[in-house]
Write a structure and sequence with these properties.
By secondary structure, the chain is mainly α. It has one domain. The chain has 3 helices and no strands. Helix 1 packs across helix 2 and helix 2 crosses helix 3. The longest helix is centred in the middle third of the chain and has 21 residues. It is globular, with a radius of gyration of 13 Å. The N and C termini lie far apart (39 Å). The relative contact order is 0.21.
């Protein structure tokens, strides 16, 4: 079983495509944060949840599930 459930994350992101884009962007930010550790102060936000997972995508999905990362749609 996948934790957190994907259905909950899809509801929070709006659509499956929106979830993929949101999780991928956040996972890249988390990966960049871990890569820049030790170089001083960085410009990336650290993970917002305490996770047992070491994979950036899993951490990103946990953040989405706990409403630490939300979708913001701008009007054109």
């Amino acid at each position: 079983m996948i934790d957190p459930p994907i259905d909950n994350a899809i509801e929070k992101a709006g659509t499956r495509f929106g979830l993929v884009v949101l999780a991928a962007r956040r996972a890249r930010e988390i990966n960049a944060y871990f890569n820049q550790l030790g170089e001083g102060f960085g410009s990336y936000v650290p993970p917002q949840v305490h996770s047992l997972s070491r994979k950036p995508l899993s951490i990103a999905l946990e953040e989405i599930d706990e409403d630490k990362v939300v979708v913001h749609i701008e009007d054109e």
